[in-house]
Amino acid sequence: MSPLFAFQLRRVGRNRQYLLFTVVLPAAFTVFFTQVFAGAPGGISQEAAAATMVAMMAYGAIGAALGATIRLSFDRASGWLRQLRVTPVPQTSVVAVDVAVGMLLALPPLVVVALVGRFVNGVRLDPGAWVGLVGVLWLGSAVFVALGLLLGWALEEKAAGGAIGLVATVLAALGGLWVPVEIFPSGLRAVAHALPSYWYAQTGRDVAAGGLPGMTAVAVLAAFGVVFAVLAVAVARRRPLAAVAG
Amino acid sequence: MSGRDDDVPHYCRDLARGQARSVPANALEISGLTVRHGDVLAVDGLDLRIGAGETVALLGPNGAGKSSTVSAVLGLLRPAAGTVRVLDRAPADAVRAGCVGAMLQHGGLPSEARVGEVVYLVRRSYPDPWPLEDLVATTGIGGLLGRPVEALSGGQRQRVMLALALAGQPPLLLLDEPTSAMDVEGRRAFWTTMRELAARGTTVVFATHHLEEADAVADRVVVLAGGRVVADGSTAGVRSAVSGRTVRLSVGDDADLTALPGVTTTARQGGTAVLTTSDAEATLRVLLDRGVPLTDLEVRGASLEDAVLTLTTGAAR
């Protein structure tokens, strides 16, 4: 493990809020939503329980990927990125470590929520489907790592601090992760279909239903990922690292 | 630097060949450097050579181009024209090879980290890091290693930044206003450390507003104004480049200080008049003729501050 990778991981890990919002909260929501609907007349179907679990896996992973990467803005504001530039640490590994940390931290919510779904809410899937579900959502979280890096480069410190919580919340609410898109009014449904979070959860729902992720979902997600990554690089290039005054 | 077991000049490893190679005679070669920030010309065809082992102060008012020059040397900005060679390499390559340590004016420390972790990370990035105990003792950060970065005072923060600059025992140190957040004692300790490093052969280049620091530490002063070098030499040499004298005397409000021979600038500070003159004798004679009493008279040669002021305002004209 590279020293920079360990260093960055330790910094994020020290943030208790981060752990709360990306792992504990989605896990608690999974139990809460499922148990509430289970108490309603007619109970809750296996499919509905699985859908809730997938949605919360997606919600947790999106929050984790964004939270781990948008904070890049703080390192720009403090001058730490500039300081790092005058050490032998290569710029490429600074970027690579940010990507790697974002990807790694998307994994805990996926695994924890899946475990809660299986052992608390009794969701039953084939062993292969479990692995596939976690794997597909993990790969897909790269889209939100790219979005987080874009926001981290584009936003100033204060805006970035707000964006960490807000962007994940908006993506989750409008992307149908809290309330299923099926009960959205048609206008809002169109909005959901324009968001990467909807298609991200869709790949998970496809796998949980025993199939492969749909082509449309994968293509839309990949397109979002490429656009975010290209924009992130473009914005980063425009950021001067030198002090202008003096 | 007691831990160093030899007095061989520093070297930084050639990453490409994996070999050590000795430092070339020039630590820094800048020719025709031009830096623009948008429409503003920050550095204007600057030429500067700094030999290995020199201690050089970059002096000049805000906007003189000091920070832009330092940034170009560190590869933090792309010059509009000109070349910069750092220990015979391109700036970015020299930084990558661990040849350079720097304290930046707008550098910073990461949040949610402990001082010891940051120091460890930066030391690990250099091919030949300074042994931790010595580094900690020299920079005086012994009690700070376990502390969160957020809990540091301004002066402590500067000391940690210095430790990061020295972490790789680089042959070239670039310091942009390094003592701006330090108190008097911290400043003195800082420059003692710098003199020790210079004595060991480290090339030290620092930008500063504090002329007394340049006077006390540097063996060469480069004065910048308007992005150009307006004076370059020993501190004594730069001072003597300004032949004028400063005349101070206590005067009443009614004293006539206009049209005095030789006087280039006139300033009143409360009841004191400060005149710079190229001909102190003629100035004083006319003052006497006008019946101005020469109360608290003081005539002295230009300080380094006067010299820099004269040189930089002259260049701006």
UniProtKB/TrEMBL annotation, chain A:
Show the coiled coil region(s): none
Keyword set, alphabetical order: Antibiotic resistance, Cell membrane, Membrane, Transmembrane, Transmembrane helix, Transport
For membrane topology, the record states: Multi-pass membrane protein
Regions crossing the membrane: 18-38, 50-74, 95-117, 129-152, 159-179, 215-236
Keyword match Nucleotide-binding: no
Give residue ranges for domain ABC transmembrane type-2.
17-239
Query: Under what name is this protein listed?
Result: Transport permease protein
**Keyword Membrane in record:** yes
GO terms, molecular function: ABC-type transporter activity
Query: What PANTHER family does this protein map onto?
Result: NODULATION PROTEIN J
**What domain of life does the UniProt record list for this protein's source?**
Bacteria
Q: Which one GO biological process term can you cite for this protein?
A: response to antibiotic
As for family, the record states: Belongs to the ABC-2 integral membrane protein family.
GO CC annotations on file: ATP-binding cassette (ABC) transporter complex
Pfam families xrefs: ABC2_membrane
Its localization reads: Cell membrane; Membrane
UniProtKB/TrEMBL annotation, chain B:
Where can this protein be found? Answer: Cell membrane
One GO cellular component term of this record is:
plasma membrane
Is the keyword ATP-binding assigned to this protein? yes
**Source species, domain of life:** Bacteria
Q: Set out the biological process GO terms recorded for this chain's protein.
A: response to antibiotic
Keywords in alphabetical order: Antibiotic resistance, ATP-binding, Nucleotide-binding, Transport
The record's section on InterPro entries has:
AAA+_ATPase (IPR003593), ABC_transporter-like_ATP-bd (IPR003439), ABC_transporter-like_CS (IPR017871), ABC_transporter_ATP-binding (IPR050763), P-loop_NTPase (IPR027417)
PROSITE patterns (UniProt xref): ABC_TRANSPORTER_1, ABC_TRANSPORTER_2
Its predominant location is membrane
**Pfam families referenced in this protein's UniProt entry, alphabetically:** ABC_tran
GO molecular function terms listed in the Swiss-Prot or TrEMBL record:
ATP binding; ATP hydrolysis activity
Q: How does it sit in the bilayer?
A: Peripheral membrane protein
What sequence ranges are listed for the domain ABC transporter?
A: 28-251
Q: Which PANTHER family match?
A: ABC TRANSPORTER ATP-BINDING PROTEIN (PTHR42711)
- Spell out the protein name for this chain: ABC-2 type transport system ATP-binding protein
Tell me which species this is from.
Answer: Geodermatophilus aquaeductus
